[in-house]
Amino acid sequence: MTKEIETLGVLEEKITQLVEAYASLKTEKTALAEKLGQKETELKGLREKVVFLSEERETAKKKVENLLNRIDRIISPSKQA
């Protein structure tokens, strides 16, 4: 009977450890899910910023090209004369 009680004690201890490990992993999972959500939001914001900056760069590029074309048209008649 004593051996059976010892076995039950060991089983109880292992179950307690298992429950504690489960609770710890559940807490860690929740924290990681929250962190993942924050990172996904951050990533979405960065993607939007990249798109905005790309569009802004294209606009600036077109303006510079237009200015260079205007300068070329002003200078070109001087070269021909």
Structure description:
This protein is mainly α. The chain is built from 1 helix and no strands. The longest helix is centred in the middle third of the chain and has 79 residues. The N and C termini lie far apart (118 Å).
Task: Provide a brief overview of the structure.
The mean pLDDT is 94. This protein is an all-alpha fold and 81 residues long.
Name its key features:
81 residues; 98% helix
CA-atom Rg in angstroms: 34 Å
Order of helices and strands: H
The chain-level structural class is: mainly alpha
Binned, the helix content reads: over 70%
The unreliable regions are: none
Q: If helices are DSSP runs of H or I spanning 4 or more residues, what is the number of helices?
A: 1
Average of the residue pLDDT scores: 94
Characterize the largest beta sheet: strand count, sense, and whether it forms a barrel.
none
- How many β-strand runs? 0
Q: Alpha-carbon distance between the termini?
A: 118 Å
What sort of overall outline do the alpha carbons produce when their principal axes are compared?
A: rod-shaped
Strand content: under 5%
